[in-house]
Amino acid sequence: MCLEPAHSRARYLVAAAVAALLLSACAGSGGSGMVGLPADEFERAYAAGYDVAAAERCGANIDAGAVRHALVTDVERRGHPSGIADKAGRTFDKTRSEFTQKLHARPDYCVTEYAVPPERLAQYAKGEFSPAR
Hints:
Elements: H1 6-27, H2 39-57, H3 64-77, H4 82-104, H5 109-112, H6 118-125
Helix pairs in contact: 2-3, 2-4, 3-4
């Protein structure tokens, strides 16, 4: 079973916060990395995209398309219009794509830093997206 070391979790949280701040500054959206996407929805989509990219890189059995669909459905279920849900889906796509490229350049990543618990991947598969950790 994969346990999430405290230092990896802290590094993930710092990376997510820095990325969110940088993206919001570039986008001028007032708290989100995508114009018009509420910060909490951005954080959920970013975290899911990051986790899925890491899981795919390290060979975990995860269906990125199903996770994306579940994320968009979850955003709509919480009362946001479809435009916001679509932006969350695009945020997931962009985050996953960018991290996939970065992780492929790091051959030791799965041994030294991978820290996505299988339970979190199972939550995504069921359509459960908690606020950023």
